[in-house]
Amino acid sequence: MVTLQVEIDTQIEFKRTLPWWQLLAIGLGAIIGAGIFVLSGQAASRYAGPSVIVSFILTGIIALFSALSFSELGAMMPLAGSVYTYTYAALGEYLAWFIGWNSILLYLFGVMTVTVAWSEYVVKFIYIVSDFNATRAIVQAPFGWNETTEAFYVTGQAINLPAIAITIAITVLLIIGVRETAMVNLVLVVIKIIILLIFIFACCKYVNTKNYDPFFPTNLGSFSEYGVTGMLQASTYVFFAYVG
C-alpha cells in the first residue's frame, strides 16, 4: 500500500489598510463620545459621587487587560474576524454560534445608545439655533423606560428620526470604504479633543474642591448607592465608555 500525502503550504498575508495612528484615532473615537459626555455625569450622580474618578481608573485598567487579551488572541490566530473566530478556533462552532449572536446583540445595544445620544444633541442644536423644541415631535421612541418604577411605558410617539438618519449616514460611510471612514473619524476625534481641552482649561478656575469632600459619599444602604460599592457599580456603568 502506498500512501500519497500532499501538503499544501499556503500563507495568507493581510493587506495593511490603516496605519497605526488611524487605528489609535478609531480607539479614541470609541472612547470619547456618549460614554464620556453623558454616562460619566450619570454615574457620578447616581452611584459614585466624586469617586467616579476612581471608577474610570479602575475600568481603564480592566479595559487594558481586555485589550491585551485580544491582542494575544489576534497574534495566536491571525484570521479575519472577532471574538467569533477566536471562539470557533478554541471551543468549536456551536459555542462560536452562540457568541456570534451575543456579539450582534452587543453591537445593537451600542448602536442604539450612541445614536439616541447623537439624536439628543441634534435636537438641542435645533433648539439653540431656532428656539424650536423638537423633542416630542421627532425624538422619542414608541416606548420608554421609567427608572423610578423600573418599567416600560408608552410615550405616544412613533419614531426617532435623527437616530435613524444618523444610522443610515454612518452605514453609507462604512459602505464607501474603511479608509474614508477612518479619515472622517480622525476629523471628528480631533474636533472632540479640541472641545474637551477648551472645556477643561476654561473651567479650571471654577472647580470647587469642597465638592470632593466626602470623596466616597456615605452608602445609603444599597450596593449601588454611593460608598465603595457605589464606586464599583459606577465602574460597570462607565465601562461602556471604553468599549465604545
Automatic annotation (TrEMBL):
Annotated GO CC locations: membrane
Task: Give the way it sits in the membrane.
Answer: Multi-pass membrane protein
GO MF entry, a single one:
amino acid transmembrane transporter activity
- Where does it live in the cell? Membrane
- Spans through the membrane: 20-40, 52-74, 94-118, 151-176, 183-202
Q: Which Pfam families match?
A: AA_permease_2
Principal location: membrane
Keywords carried by this UniProt record: Membrane, Transmembrane, Transmembrane helix, Transport
PANTHER family in UniProt = CATIONIC AMINO ACID TRANSPORTER 4, INNER MEMBRANE TRANSPORTER YGJI-RELATED
Q: What is this protein called?
A: Amino acid permease
